[in-house]
Amino acid sequence: MQANNQYAFGLIGLGVMGRNFILNVAEKGFTALGYDLDPGQVEALKREGGNLDRVNATNSLEAFVQGLETPRKIMLLVPAGPIVDSVIEELLPLVSAGDLIIDGGNSFFRDTDRREAYLKEKNIHFFGAGVSGGAEGARRGPSLMPGGDRDAYREVQPIFEAVAAKFEGTPCVAYLGPKSAGNYVKMVHNGIEYGLMQLTAEAYDLLRRAGGLGNAEIQEVFARWNRGRLQSFLVEISSEILGRKDDLDSGDLIDKVRDQGKQKGTGKWTSQNAMDLGIPVPTIDIAVSMRAISAFKQDRERADTLFERPGAGSVDTEK
Amino acid sequence: MQANNQYAFGLIGLGVMGRNFILNVAEKGFTALGYDLDPGQVEALKREGGNLDRVNATNSLEAFVQGLETPRKIMLLVPAGPIVDSVIEELLPLVSAGDLIIDGGNSFFRDTDRREAYLKEKNIHFFGAGVSGGAEGARRGPSLMPGGDRDAYREVQPIFEAVAAKFEGTPCVAYLGPKSAGNYVKMVHNGIEYGLMQLTAEAYDLLRRAGGLGNAEIQEVFARWNRGRLQSFLVEISSEILGRKDDLDSGDLIDKVRDQGKQKGTGKWTSQNAMDLGIPVPTIDIAVSMRAISAFKQDRERADTLFERPGAGSVDTEK
Amino acid sequence: MQANNQYAFGLIGLGVMGRNFILNVAEKGFTALGYDLDPGQVEALKREGGNLDRVNATNSLEAFVQGLETPRKIMLLVPAGPIVDSVIEELLPLVSAGDLIIDGGNSFFRDTDRREAYLKEKNIHFFGAGVSGGAEGARRGPSLMPGGDRDAYREVQPIFEAVAAKFEGTPCVAYLGPKSAGNYVKMVHNGIEYGLMQLTAEAYDLLRRAGGLGNAEIQEVFARWNRGRLQSFLVEISSEILGRKDDLDSGDLIDKVRDQGKQKGTGKWTSQNAMDLGIPVPTIDIAVSMRAISAFKQDRERADTLFERPGAGSVDTEK
Amino acid sequence: MQANNQYAFGLIGLGVMGRNFILNVAEKGFTALGYDLDPGQVEALKREGGNLDRVNATNSLEAFVQGLETPRKIMLLVPAGPIVDSVIEELLPLVSAGDLIIDGGNSFFRDTDRREAYLKEKNIHFFGAGVSGGAEGARRGPSLMPGGDRDAYREVQPIFEAVAAKFEGTPCVAYLGPKSAGNYVKMVHNGIEYGLMQLTAEAYDLLRRAGGLGNAEIQEVFARWNRGRLQSFLVEISSEILGRKDDLDSGDLIDKVRDQGKQKGTGKWTSQNAMDLGIPVPTIDIAVSMRAISAFKQDRERADTLFERPGAGSVDTEK
After folding, report:
1. For B28, phi and psi rounded to 5 degrees?
2. Residue A267 backbone phi and psi in degrees, to 5
3. Partners of A9 in beta bridges
4. Which residues of A touch D280 (CB under 8 A)?
């Protein structure tokens, strides 16, 4: 391990996503130090990192903070919610004025605003910087959406631009504005994605039930749409999925997927925030409702089992 | 002009779209004959076509029909609606059993079913085959979505595969099923597109009003989204449009666009047909309604001019 | 039976609804003659009608038509759809110029327009006149929504005003305009009702799941709402239903109702017609979609039985 | 003024609504004391109240609190939001363990939960008790929806049951459950009302634009609907409004109403809370969005004035 104040970048949270991100940083030529409470994760990173002068890890938060160059650039890849607040509270006695704390999670933008204001009083710069691309993206080149103090951002900008994915030579990272601007844009991004998934499902349903097309034919239709005005990543992967066989059983994989979705919240926040602001986003609202309907599947089925009675028939509510 | 029964392909409707399509056919090595009532369009095609043995045109429907190899392959590129029916009636006394009539327009699928049944009784094969890609696509490689009798389709398949766009070597054309299957898929395609445009508009609105981003920043956000899970043709062109300056005036082009859309019907048909079939497509329904709301702009404004009275204030409907 | 041309009013279709309507007419002092193909229905009416000079019935269409005063007032209470057309065709050789044919069913307004135009050429007046209130309303006082030729309407107006329900002395019947105006208003009426039922269901769901209220408490809440700004017939009957016990089993009746609705079409027509006209009715659209979702219950359940595999878990579509 | 601890009921906020409520309490036989910072409101109540032994008022908060029997029953009729919190803070040093503070405003249910928990620690009982019926209802008989501690509720129950409206002899008041149950039910009530208003507007729009009916005819149609399955308070008042003439100008009042709604929040909260709970309420969501669209009227118009250019035409987005 290097002497104090020697690592250029610090990362808290050494799960797969965190390890991949810090290895990416190191590979681009920056020294980097990781921290995790769990010694197993610390060892995993040391093993994967190879040259310990370049990338190292510790389960002592003091050693971690002291190991970083000032102003410190400390990124959090921990679950969104109260854990972010506890990590901040633990860091506060250890960091110095002018340091940067960067939240890389999918945090609610109002939480980011609150944390930014709280840390600003203590002269700590706080950033919300959504990371997209999953674990593989973190390793090979994520897309980054940072927001926070513009001047302080310059401290971490060279690292972010180095690790980000490149599109025709340009790094997929841009400073999006003060405070929670980065989280806000990520939230809208996910709201749109809800809508796109709902639309794709409606298209599939129409072609299947009404058009009478089979999975292979819909795959063909989606593949063709993907070469025209509807060309998109989601249409493309939908087309691929439609062609997959179930490798544990006979038949198509798509026919084994449960009609039940979950929500982590970002799409829902988009609708709720738009309502607070009086901005109409009706198709996103509907996509959120349809996902909620799909989630009630088990309740409905349990209710049926309990209550159905032969001969009751369905209720005709129209006269 | 060649002798009777010598042209491999016939096309009715020599507007820009029709001329481009027939020139594309000729360029792929097929002889082709065009027909239009308007001598100007006929001359335009002859001029653009060069070698009149390869591609020729006439404003006599009799000469046109007699000029084609049997079974004749006659494609219509005329406006959807009653014009398709009149052209069919004019053709009927001239064509022979086994000939193919192919409607290349955006026809309502029920009209195609009706025409197919009507012509089947007369031993004429009728196809609905949506052409997408616009006038430029017609010339360089359209996407084709034919539906109709499978055996008869083989007669025109080599021509369609030759003229269609190629994607990694595969022609963007596939037989979609009997009767109006081609029009049906095109209709659903356009319904989805309505939804995508509405979603894109909602995203823009949120980022602009709520996020406080300017056009240049939203352009940047859309460009970034286009490199991730939201990658799509519509996000890409939206990003491009956001960067355009108004070349007749100062400012951004986007700020000069009226918030008013029109409808030709295909998106609306998707919703209406889904309702007939009891298939829920709520986000497409909403997109159709939002487009209708945008279209009422002038009515609302005229009403305001007539009726507004100073000091009336707005009505607070909640207590 | 009276001599020819002696009955003031004729009714075709002697099911419960039809018999009730004609008995209502007779009770108000008009002579009335019924017709039905089925001799059983004819006998049922004769038995229920008592004085055969006042109300009589036949299963001969010729005798029926000849029995009516001219201009004849012939009302049809038969199922909406092609049966209306066949009855009209059977009547045509028998009726005379100036006679009235009145369709009392829930016909699609475009069908009424078509029939009205067809019969106008033959100097027969055709009316679409929705009857609401069910079988009991037909007997004791229905609500009537006639549309058609205003002058010809005067012939039947005294009968309609006599049989209709009275509200503070005024008969619940009004001429609504030419052609299909009556059916159109009835269609919009049913579209609104779809929306109200969907809203009531959403309220119940929120109070039950989110508020944690039991059926008895929701009944109380609905009863209270029914005394304020939400006062309405549907809230009132919803409150009553919530208080009913299952008389074949233990527990509340509401918990035994299947979450599955059917559609006869009038609500759906409202949405489809609004789309044709470019008039946005998004809450009705959504109510139609939600009813369609409820109808797919069995398909979904069957699919689950076939395909579910232990341990598959639900799909988390968000990252 | 009576001696200390002599008034049975205290009310803070002597606007029209507050004065009416306290006069209603006094009229039912309870002694009541009002408080308002504004001496004008205090004098107004004294004047209107007549017998000062029965109902009195003060602008000293100390005198007010000391004037009440213990356990004190103090009702707040002040605007929802931070004012409720400040009044609570001012009351805290003056009240005693076991006293009741009752918020009669349209408070957000989460605020009520927070206040209830905060005051519980101090042994003060806090109630959220929505009052509906407006200023006139407050005087003659409001509808009350209290929630809070069930045992403590018994202290105020006789007063609430005495002042509330009666429906067939039963007072329109019921204890709805612990904490914010009363505010929650009121919130859902208002969410439903948003939906009903949107549906009524859609019906009007269809009948007017599509059906071509005038205001007088729609009034007639609504009046008729109000006698059938659509019978409701909102349809009834809509019918009445449609018949009103503009008394400052010529024409119908309805044609002078701006197509622009405002929101105070309760409907919006219903949608947002349902999303948090994963309960689908799509028609309420859409009603909230449509109200937001209507509110943007002025922005759209200002934008048009600035940017419209002759000859630009409308954009046809479909191909």
Report:
1. -85, 5
2. -65, -45
3. A32
4. 289-290, 292-293, 296
Q: Measured between CB atoms, does C197 come within 8 Å of chain D?
A: no
Nearest residue, CB atoms, C256 vs list A259, A262, A309 = A309
Do residues D258 and B312 touch, judged by C-beta distance below 8 A? yes
Beta-bridged to residue A57, according to DSSP, are: A34
In this complex, is the C-beta atom of D281 within 8 Å of any C-beta atom belonging to chain A? yes
Length reported for chain C: 319
Instruction: Determine contact, residues A33/A58, Cβ cutoff 8 Å.
Output: yes
Coil vs helix vs strand at A57: strand
Residue C173, strand partner residues: C144
The structure tokens listed for A68 are 């970083």
> Amino acid identity, residue D167?
F
The angle formed by the CA atoms of residues B47, B51 and B56, to the nearest 5 degrees, is 65
What sections of chain B are H helices per DSSP? Answer: 16-27, 39-49, 61-66, 82-91, 109-120, 134-140, 150-163, 181-205, 215-225, 233-243, 266-277, 282-295, 297-307
Quote ipTM for the complex.
Answer: 0.76
* 8 Å CB contact of C195 and D193: no
Note whether C315 contacts A262, CB cutoff 8 Å. Answer: yes
Phi-psi region at C309: left, alpha or beta (left = phi > 0; alpha = psi -120 to 50): beta
Q: For the whole prediction, is pTM greater than 0.90?
A: no
Give the largest CA-CA distance in chain A.
83
Candidate from A35-49, A142-156, C140-154, C237-251 with smallest mean pLDDT: C237-251
- Dump pLDDT digits (tens) for D172-221: 888 888 999 989 988 888 888 888 888 888 888 888 887 778 888 888 88
Tokens matching residue A23? 């290895």
- Which residues, 6+ apart, have CB-to-CB distance to B279 below 8 Å? A205, A206, A209, A210, C292
More confidently predicted of C22 and A311: C22
Instruction: Please report, for residues A177, A180, B218, B249, the alpha-carbon distance to residue B214 in angstroms, rounded to integers and kept in the order given.
Output: 11, 16, 6, 18
B255 vs B242: CA distance, rounded Å: 9
Task: For chain B, positions 261-280, list CB contacts with chain C under 8 A.
Answer: 263, 268, 271-272, 274-276, 278-280
Look at D228 and C233 and tell me if their CB atoms are within 8 Å.
Answer: yes
Amino acid letter at A288?
A: V
Which chains, if any, share at least 3 CB pairs under 8 A with chain C?
Answer: A, B, D
CA separation for the pair B291, B198 (Å, rounded): 8
For testing contact with chain C, the best of A194, A262, A319 (most C CBs within 10 A) = A319
The phi and psi torsions of C150 (rounded to 5 degrees) equal -65, -40
Contact D141, D24 (CB under 8 A): yes
Which helix (H) or strand (E) segment holds residue D275: the answer is helix D266-277
